[in-house]
Structure formats: C-alpha cells, structure tokens
Amino acid sequence: MSAAHQSNQGGSNPDRPHPDKWIKVLPEGLYVEPGGFYIDPVRPVERAVVTHGHSDHARPGNRHVLATPGTLAVMRQRMGEGVGGSLQALEYGESLRIGDVAVRLVPAGHVLGSAQVVLEHAGSRVVVSGDYKRRLDRTCTPFEPVPCDVFVTEATFGLPVFRHPPDLGEVGKLLHSMALFPERSHAVGVYALGKCQRLITLLRAAGYDRPIWLHGALEPLCRLYSSLGVELGELRPATVAAKEDLKGALVLAPPAAVADRWARRLADPVVAVASGWMRVRQRARQRGVELPLVISDHADWDELCQTLEDVGAPEVWVTHGREEALVHYATSRGIRARALALIGFEDEDSEGIPEKAGEGEAS
Amino acid sequence: MNRFAALIDALVFMPSRNGKIRLLVEHFATAPDPERGWALAALTGALSFREAKPAAIRELAATRVDPQLLALSYDYVGDLAETVALIWPERPERANSLPPSLDEVVEGLRAARRGQVIGLVEGWLDTLDSSGRFALLKLITGALRIGVSARLAKTALAEWGRAARPEVSVDDVEEVWHGLTAPYRELFAWLEGRAEQPATGSGAGFRPMMLSHPLEEEDRAVLDPAAYAAEWKWDGIRVQMVARGGERRLYSRTGDDVSGAFPDIVDHMSFDAVLDGELLVARDGVVAPFNDLQQRLNRKTVTAQMLRDGPAWVRLYDILFDGEEDLRGLSFVERRARLERWFEAVQPRRMDLSPMVPFTAWDELVALREGARENGIEGLMLKRRDSAYLAGRPKGPWFKWKRGALTLDTVMMYAQRGHGKRSSYYSDYTFGVWRGEELVPVGKAYSGFTDAELIELDRWVRNHTTRRYGPVREVEAGLVLEVAFDSVHPSTRHKSGLAMRFPRIHRIRWDKPAPEADRLETLAAMVVG
C-alpha cells in the first residue's frame, strides 16, 4: 500500500485536503483545480488531459491537449484540423508537473493509447481510470493497477449479470457459424476504434487467415493501427466489393450498419455484433442480432471488483454506467463509494448507436 | 443438457422460420434417443413434471448473490430465468463435475417429490454454464417462449422424416401425435424408416383439420353456385372436440390442447365423437364480441369468475367421427346430415349447430354478407357439397369469404424495424387518429403493402423521424395510412379504448394531408354490439 494511501483517513487535515476539495465536477467535465485542467472535458476548454480516443472522451477544440502518443495519433486521424491547439505527448509512466499536480499516464488496456490519469497533490493520490479492461488485448498495453487514495472508475458493465466469457470462445462461435453457413456473408458490427482491430487480431490468433472485408468507416483506423505495428493481415474494402465476392465473406462494419441499409449489399448476411451487451439475450434480439458475440473493451463485473481489490483505494468514485450496483458492492466491502454525476459519457457500446456510418463508436 | 441448451440458444436468435426448422432438423438428426424426444416434448409443451415457481428460483438465487445486486440485475434484464442464468456464481471447484444430461434432468424432475425440486435445480445450476442454466431455468419454470410453436416443431419433424420417408407430411405427424407420449421413440423410429407408422391411437388424439382458402373475385366467376353450400363463418377460434373412450379434449386449430381453459365445454362432452366447430363466448345464445373470448384464451386454468363472465359455447360445423365410425371420407352434404342427426339424438349443452345459409345465386350471398354486421359473424364459408374432410388446406373444396373490411384513414405515429429479411426496414407501423388536437394510437400493422412500397415507407420514416427509442422511431404526423380491418371492439388495454381486429395497410395516402385523417369518434361509431 502506498504512503499516500494512509494519508487520507481523516479527510479534515488542512495540510492534506480531501481530494473532493480539489477535484470537481463542472459542466465542462472533471476539473483538477490545482492543475487548472480537465480530464476528458465534454466542451472545449483551455487545458485538457485525454484518456483515450473514443469520441465521448476525446472531443475537438481544446486549446491544449495532453495525452499518450497513441491517443494523439488517433485524435489526429479522427479530427484532422479540429483536434485542438497544441498537442503534448506524454509516454506511459513519465511524470509531468502541471501547476501544483504531478500527472502520470498509466496503461488502461481499453484501446490503443488508452491511459489512466494518476494525479498526486497535497499528499493524496487519485487515479482517474477512464475506460479500462483487464484481459489480454494484442492491440494495446495491458492495464496496470496503481494503488491510490481515490479510484475513479467506470461502471459500464457494473452488474453481476455481465461476465464476459473467454474471447477465443466467442471468436470460435463466429468461425463455427461461418462453417455452418458457408454461402452467407457474416456481417459483424464493431466499433471503429479498438473493437474492430481487436476482433481482427483475435481472428488471426484463432487461425483465420482469409481477407477480412471492411466498411469504409473502419478503414482509416485500421491503417493507423497497422502503421503503429499492430498486425491485422489482409483487409479489403467491402463498400465497393461485388456481392458475389462477399458470399461466405467476413465483413466488419459499424454496429448501426450491419442490420441497416448498408448491409443490403451483402449476400443473405448473418448479422452479428461484438459487444458486452450481447450477453443479455433480449437486448441482442431487439437489435435483430442473429449471432451475438460477447466481446468487450470494458471490464466486466468480475474485473471491476478485482480492480477495486487491486488498487486498494479506501474510496471509490463511480462515473458512467450502472453506478448503483457497483457503489452498493464497494460499500459492502467497506470502501467509501459514491456516484459522480458526469454528463456526456455514453460508453461506445451503448444502445444509442449513431446511424450515420463514419460516426465510429460513440454518440 | 449442453446440446439442448445450444439448440435453445440458437432458436432464440434465429429470426426466420426456415432457419428454425433447419436447426430443429439438425437436432433430430444428431441427438440420440431419448434426448431428442425430451427436447421435442419441451418444445411442444408436452413435458409435465413438478414445476418450480419463479419466486422459488429467485429465493434460491438470493442465497448465492447479494439480494440487492440480484434485484438491480433483474430490473435491468427483465427476465428472471435469464437474470439467474447470468448471475449464478460459478464455482471453480465444480468446473470438473459433469453437467447433467437432458435425460437426467427430465427423469429427475419427474421423479421428484414436492420440496425436492429446488435442491435438484441448485445442484444442476452449479455444474452448468450460462446457456445450460438458461435452458434449465426455462424448462423448469414451464414456459420456453422461444418462438417455436408445437406446429413448427412437427413441421420440422416431417421435414427431417422425409429423408427416409419421402411421403411424410406434417399432417401425418399430427395424425399419430396424440397417440404418443414423450420421449417418442416409436415416432423417431418410424420417421427414420426403422419401424411402422405408430397407430393413430384410439385415444383422444387430434385429427388434422380442414382449412379453407380466401375467395377471390375471379374465383366467384368460375365457381358453380349449385356445387357449394354456404354457412356463416363465426368470429371465434376454430376448435376440435374429441371425446373418445372416456377421454375428452378440446384442441385449437394447430392441435394445441386447450381443454384446461374451457372446463365449461369439456364438462358437457359426454358423448363419443369428434366434432369441428367454432369456440365462442355466448350469453343466452347471443354471441359476445371476440374481445370477451380473448379474456379466456392463452390460459392454463380458469377462475370461477371468468366462467361466469364469459361462458364458452361451441357452434358446430362438422362431424369427423361418430363413435368408432370415421366419417371423413363422406361428402359434406352427408356429413352435415349425420351431424344434424347426431345433434338431435345427443342434444349436448353449450353447443348448437351453425345454420346453413340457403342461396341459389352468388348475388344473394353478396347482399347477405354485406348485411351481416352483427356480433360474431366474420363472413361466409363456402363448402363444396361433394367434398370429403381433408387434412390441411386443399385448394377448391372450401373457401372463406370474409365480409368487406372496414377502412379508416389514420396517421402514422411510430415505426419499428422488422425481423429477418426485413430487419433493415422500418416495416411495423403504429397508427393513430385524431382526438381533438392530439393523435391517439389505435393499432399496429405490418402487412398489406408491396416490397416497392416498403422501400418508400422506409425512406419516409427515416426522413421524418422526430425521436428514437431503441428500435422504434417516432415520426412526424405527416403520412396518412388507409387501414383495413375486420371489426373494432371496446378495449381497456388501449389508450384509445378501442381495438381493431386484423388491421392491415390498405393504401398509402401519399396525397392526403394528415389533418384530414379520421377522428376517434368515427372509429367508435364502427363498434358493433
């Protein structure tokens, strides 16, 4: 346990103010006052620290942006000119002083470049984890637990019904279906950043070496991942392909496109979606999914609980997702816990899927 | 259990009927006896054992999971079997013990005494994975509800059986079905060509029913009126009454046993015959609106109050067996004479004869049919005088001639995505009419338009969406749909207080401004009775 860990028990020591005195929820987002910056602000601000490139966390128009080199590359790719004023890269593990706060970025294991923000100020350490997961992902650096006084966690899958089965088993389901219906296309809904590339690496690891066809909205980030050294194998554009070529093919597209007009070009497609939500049958059915694949870039319930254990924080703030259950669980484990009412986050697996192709992964 | 669980999972997600049949055929072909028979029994609702109440399952889960987390999860998922299947904590030390086979589960439950069921279930839940737990919990709470009807399962059986017996039809399966019990070894042996067709059974089995085709305008021109008899088509549900050798059964058109819900009919079946008729709710011989019958459908049991408020009645159309004598080969005219004689002799209570409608020319019937607006009449039936009682829907001998539909100009309010081939189209429409300045929904329809019109409707919905709720879109009040429907009844379930029977899109009125659509008062005036 860190020294910082024991420093916070009373909370009323004027030399060691409780973190809720210097981290505030403002309309723009989570504000770190002694550093004068916001973490993942929802509106343009002077200084932003960005945890990862999903569009509900990384938004355009900030004057100054600090993020990992991977996240900055993603942001440049997605936003072009609108990405913001000055961009400053901070490698994983390096420390930087901003105002009166020491800032460090630590891998979150969510998507390429994703980071937890470790904040130290006035004898306390706070970790804002952004979105994270704990299982193996060949497309990004694995999550590192950092002991702290306050752990700020997501709760996208914060109910004990959400237990993601092993990834390779889910990929096996897809390969089995392709063997069972060799004449049909398999259209898998995936988010453009992270899920798409991860599914491809999982398929390759399972031995699938045929070309994989991509919806146009998925191509730029796949190119970026490849250029950053993530092996994806042969990819082909599906949007301009002939229907005949797509018989028996594996096609990846944004979730909104797989059961919509775009998919009419495919040969009698089996509609699949890769998402943690697919665990709940009724949800999958409502979305018209024939082949649900439970593959997620978020921690499942067990991973959330394990992470609370690993960071050993006596206090937890729960941001977006199903906060109530996780707060209840943490409290029952003797951890002080509360929900932070942050607005503007809808994890990229949420139901409010954008319709327009190209809006990638978030709304 | 694993194979059964995989089947259930696949069926849950399979949107198309043909796809479901394919999955079932595959199962019958690969699962051994008696497992496939138990699966068939589960799908057709023919398994009976001591069921576990949902409350007991919930209590059981609460011994393993924090009750508050269970409650929050149930809230979120909405289905108890699924919630418990997903939330049940897996014990690593049990991972090596073998999950039960479906045979073990079924036999265990059949042998279980009161109070033992939950203990058995708990042990099984510990060894199954989440799909297995889901299948088990669905099985023991007595309702699979996975979109497979008994008829579909039998259709798949016949399809599979045709590999070895090309002549087999679903009606052949129906014919032998009720003489058999789970796990149906002799049925599978027959369909695999290893044994003779099982006996139809002297028992109270269902005989496949004879169905009709709708009468088209052009049919009438070529049909000879002298060759046909006419009778009213009553607006209830077609049933078959079977009373044989002391057993009594009431079957729906698809062969589902609905005896349990209609003791007021079954009690009076003190005869030995198989009869075809229409199940109605009638008070003092006067047929009540279909809505009253609706209150009594889809129930396993019935309360004294329901029996009092909605007394059931059967209006007889036909006789298939009189005692041991099979009358199905006789002509309609001969059967009708037998039916009348039988009725005279037996005088069963709660039943009457559907009267014949004499006519000589089609025009007479046209006038009668249009005049028939009273409760309970859906139209006319035309039956060839010389036709035998044939299984299924042969073209020619029987026609249904529904009375002219009612129509109403409504405004599209919501649109929902379809399923299967229509999953990329907004094809299910909720429509409303004006009440004062607001629109109130009065029904929902997803048929009656062409594929080309569907493309246009889909485009219109996408371009005029005002709000979205998951798969549903709310649209601007800007498109008039002329809806056709058979009748309209008061309903407490709908906000408008009215419910339509068989609404479908009649025409899309691209030309008509929405404010000129019909008003609720117009629809209310169409209620009969």
UniProtKB/TrEMBL annotation, chain A:
Composition bias type Polar residues, residue spans: 1-12
N-terminal signal peptide: none
InterPro entries tied to this protein: MBL, RibonucZ/Hydroxyglut_hydro, Xnuc_lig_assoc
E.C. numbers: 3.1.-.-
Top-level enzyme category: hydrolase
GO-annotated molecular function: exonuclease activity; ligase activity; RNA endonuclease activity
Disordered, as annotated region: 1-20
Protein name according to UniProt: Ligase-associated DNA damage response exonuclease
Protein source organism: Azospirillum oryzae
From TrEMBL, chain B:
Protein name listed in UniProt: DNA ligase (ATP)
GO terms for MF: ATP binding; DNA binding; DNA ligase (ATP) activity; metal ion binding
The organism's place on the tree of life at top rank: Bacteria
GO biological process: cell division; DNA recombination; DNA repair; DNA replication
Stored Gene3D superfamilies: DNA ligase, ATP-dependent, N-terminal domain, DNA ligase/mRNA capping enzyme, Nucleic acid-binding proteins
EC number assigned by the record: 6.5.1.1
Reaction equations catalysed: ATP + (deoxyribonucleotide)n-3'-hydroxyl + 5'-phospho-(deoxyribonucleotide)m = (deoxyribonucleotide)n+m + AMP + diphosphate
Domain ATP-dependent DNA ligase family profile: 316-435
Keyword DNA repair: yes
Keywords: ATP-binding, Cell cycle, Cell division, DNA damage, DNA recombination, DNA repair, DNA replication, Ligase, Magnesium, Metal-binding, Nucleotide-binding
Enzyme class, UniProt record, top EC level: ligase
InterPro entries registered for this protein in UniProt: ATP-dep_DNA_ligase, ATP_dep_DNA_lig_pp_1105_fam, DNA_ligase_ATP-dep_C, DNA_ligase_ATP-dep_cent, DNA_ligase_ATP-dep_CS, DNA_ligase_N_sf, NA-bd_OB-fold
One Pfam family named in its UniProt record: DNA_ligase_A_M
